[in-house]
Amino acid sequence: MAESTTATAHGSHDGDGVTKRDFLTLVAGAGAAVGAGAMAWPLIDSMNPSKDVLALSSIEVDLKPIQAGQAITTMWRGKPVFVRNRTAEEIKAAQAEAKGLADPATDAERVKPGKEQWLVVVGICTHLGCVPVGNRPSDQRGEYGGWFCPCHGSQYDTSGRVRHGPAPANLPVPPYAFLSDTKIKIG
Amino acid sequence: MAGLHKSDFENPVINWIDTRLPIFTMLQKEYGVFPTPKNFNYFWNFGALAMVTLMIMIATGIFLAMNYTAHTSMAFDSVQRIMRDVNYGWLIRYVHANGASMFFLVTYIHIFRGMYYGSYKAPRELLWILGVVILLIMMATAFFGYVLPWGQMSYWGATVITNLFSAIPIVGEPIVTWLWGGFSVANPTLNRFFSLHYLLPFVLIGIVFLHVAALHVTGSNNPLGIDVKGPQDTLPFHPYYTVKDSVGLCLFLAIFAFFVFFAPNFFGAADNEIPANPLVTPAEIVPEWYLLPFYAILRSVPSKLGGVLMMFGSIGLLFVVPWLDTSPVRSCKFRPVYRWFLGLLVIACVVLGAVGAHRPEGIWVLLGRLGTIYYFLHFLVILPVVGKLERPLPLPESISKPVLPRGGGPLPAGAAAKPMEKA
Amino acid sequence: MMRWVSLAAAAALVSSLAVSAPVQAQETSLPRQNWSFAGPFGTFDRAAAQRGFQVYKEVCSTCHSMKLAYFRDLEGIGLSEEQIKAVAASVTLPDIGDDGAPIERPGLPADHFRSPFANEKAARAANNGAAPPDLSLIIKARDGGADYLYALLTGFSTAPATMKMGDGMNYNKYFAGNQIGMVAPLSEGRVEYADGTPASVNQMAKDVTTFLAYISEPETEMRKALGVKVVLFFLLMTGVTYAVKRKVWADVDH
C-alpha cells in the first residue's frame, strides 16, 4: 500500500490534494517532535531544585534573643533572611507616608497585624543579589535607617523598602507565620 | 560507490591512509599550498595565536580537572592543593588562568583587525558571524571557569551574572532558579558550571573548525581589502605564513610566560583567594578585565532590564555589522573618515573597561554613559552613515601592483622587518 | 593609520590592565618595602622566614588558623626534617582512636597546622563577632600583598579624637574603615629571637610577613627560576624564527 501511495504522490493529487503519504509524514514528524520534547524534559527538569534542596524549604526562628533595634540573619533556602525587632521610632518611620517609592508598598502590607515590631525580609539586594548591611546598630544603615547595600549603594528603609539607589524593588517578604509570640516559621 | 582517492604522497604509510581517507591531501591543500594573499601584516597572526591558546587552554584544563573537586566544600581547597602539592600544579593552573586573559587579548585584537580591514564584509559575513559565536561561547566558558575556584569573587560574580536573567519579566525568576538548581548559587550550580565549563571548549573547537572552513571557502582578506586577482597576488600558506605565524607565536608565548611566571596574579582579584562566603559580600564585585566594558554598559543604564538588554545588545549588534557597514570599500586604509571613528570606538571600549572597574559614582557614571552612547552610536549610526557619505581613497589595481605613492615597485629588503608600517 | 589604531589598542590594553588591578585602591597609600622575595630573581630570606615562623607560632597562631599549610611546608624556609618533626610533635591534634573514641595525638610533618578554633562560629564567638581570617593565603588575598600586611601590622595607633570608635575596636591607619577588631599583636620584645636579632615591631612585622609570603605562595622560588629560562627560551625562539622568516621571504617581492 505504501508503495502505491508513493507512486501516486509524485504525480497527481488524489481528491482534496492531500495524500495519505503527506498525512503520515506529518504524523510521524509530530510524533518525533513530541518524543524529542518528552525526552528533553527530564534533562531540563533535572536542573531544577532537587528534593534535598526543596526539603530545606522551611525553617523556624526563635525571636526571643533579638533585642529591640537589632536584627539577625538566618538562612532560608540558601538565602539570608533578616528578622528585625524594630524600635517604636523605626515603626513610626516605616508607617509614615513615603512618596516617590520605586516599588510602592505600605508598611502594613509588609508586617503581620499586631506584630508590627517584627520585620522579616529576604536579605538580598534586589539589584544584583548582594547582602545589605545594617543588622547591627554599628553597621552603616543608610539615610533611611534600614539597610545599606555596600555593592552599589542601594538604601532600604525600616520597612525594607528601597528608597535610593539602583535596586528596582523592595526587599521581598518571605512567606512566614507566627507559631507563637516568640517563634515564626519561614517558608 | 566512489573510487579510492588517488594520493600523490610517496611515503607508503601516508599514501595508504590517504588513499582511503584523504586527510593528508586535505591538509596539504588547506594548510600547505593554500593560496594566501602575500601582503599580510603581523595582525594576521592573531587568529593562529587564538587557535594555539585554545589548545593550551584545553590541554591544561584537562589536567586541572584530574585534580579538581567540583563541590562547594572542597573546590577551594582542591584548587589550593593543585597550587601547593600537585607536581607543577601551580604552573598548569597559572597557565590556564592567565591563558584566559591571553585568549581574550588575542581575540579582541583579532576582532579589531577584522573591523579595521573590513574582513566582515561580503563575502565573509558568515565567517564573521561564526567569529561572534566563538566570542559568545568564550565568554560563557570564561564565566563558568571563573566560578570553579569557589573564591569570593567566583561566588559573587556568579550571583550577579545569573541574577541578570531575573530581569526578564515573568519567567525571569524561574529561569534563575533553574540555572542555580536551588534558591541561590550553591553546590548544584557549581557542579553544572563545571560540567559546562568542560563541555563548551569542545563546542568551541567545532565552531572554530567551521570558522576556518568558511575562511578557506572565501579566502583571507588582506590589508588592502581588495580581492586576490591571481596567483601573482598569493603565496602558499606553507612555509610563508607558517613561519610568519611562528615568529608571532614565539613572541606571544614569551609575553604569556612573563605573566605566568612573574605576575601570575596580575589579572586576578585578591578577593578570590578568600573562600566563597554567601553571607559576606566583597566591597566591590568586579568581573575579569575582558568583561569589564560589557559590565560598564550594564551599569550605565539606570533600569535593570534596560541594562541587561543593552549589555546583551552590545554583543548581539556584532552579528549584523556586515549589513550595517554600507561602504563599498573594505580596508580602513582607504577610508579616511571611518578609521578615525574606529579609533574612537577603541577608545570608547577602553573607557568602558575603566568604568567597569570603578564604583559607579562621580565622573565614572558620566564616562560610562558617554562610552555606552558612543558604542551604540558607532554601530547603529556612524557605520551606516559614514559608509554612504565618505569618499574612499583610490584603490590599488591589485595586491602585487599597488598604486600607492610609496608602495610601487619592489620594496627594499629591510621593509619586511616592519610590515605594520607598510600597512 | 593601522599604527595609530594599534597604538590606541596598546594604550587600551595598558590602561585596562592598569585599572583592573588596583580597583580597591587603599585610601592611605601603602609604603613600599624591600622584600627579599620581590623581583624576578627574588628568593625568601630563610633567616627572616624562620624568625617569622616563630612570630607566627608565638603570636598569630593563638587566634589565626593557617589551614592550608602543612608542617612539611616548613622545609621551604630551611628547617631540617628533624626540626620539622619536632615542631609537628609539639602540638597535639584531634583524631579517632582504635576504639573509636576521640583522642589527641602528637602532630606529624604530614599534618596541617592546627587551627586555634574548632570552626568559624567558635572563632567568631571568641573574638567579639569578627572571626580572625585564615593566614594560609593572606598575602595573595589582600590588595597590596606583603606591603599591606606589613603596613597593617605596624599601622596601629591611638584613634584621632574626631573618630568615634566602636566597642572593642582598634584604630589602624591602613585597615579599610580604620577600625579593626584585632588588638595590635606586636610590641617591642614580644618574642625572643634565637639568633639574637632585636625583636622590634618593624623587625617582627617584616619577618612574619616574609614567612606568610612563603606560606601563601610556596612555589615562588621554583616559579621564578623556571620562568627566567622559559621567557629566555621563547625570546630566543622569536629571534630564530624571525631569522628563518627573513630567509624564507627573501625571494618574495612584497
Question: What secondary-structure arrangement, pairings included, does this model have?
Answer:
The complex is a heterotrimer of chains A (187), B (423) and C (254).
Chain A: H1 2-10, H2 20-45, H3 51-55, E1 59-62, E2 71-76, E3 79-85, H4 88-95, E4 118-122, E5 145-148, E6 155-157, E7 162-164, E8 176-180, E9 183-186
Antiparallel strand pairs in A: 1-9, 2-3, 3-4, 5-6, 6-7, 8-9
Chain B: H1 12-20, H2 23-32, E1 35-37, H3 46-65, H4 75-84, H5 89-116, H6 125-147, H7 152-163, H8 172-180, H9 187-218, E2 234-236, H10 237-262, H11 292-300, H12 304-319, H13 321-324, H14 338-356, H15 363-389, H16 419-422
Antiparallel strand pairs in B: 1-2
Chain C: H1 2-20, H2 46-58, H3 81-89, E1 92-96, E2 102-106, H4 120-126, H5 145-154, E3 170-171, E4 179-180, H6 201-216, H7 220-249
Antiparallel strand pairs in C: 1-2, 3-4
Q: Based on CA inertia axes, which overall geometry of chain A fits?
A: elongated
Secondary-structure-based class of chain C equals mainly alpha
The CATH level-2 architecture of the largest domain in chain A is identified as 3-layer Sandwich
Give a count of the beta strands of chain C, DSSP E runs of length 2 or more.
4
Integer count of domains of chain A: 2
Low-confidence stretches of chain C: 16-26
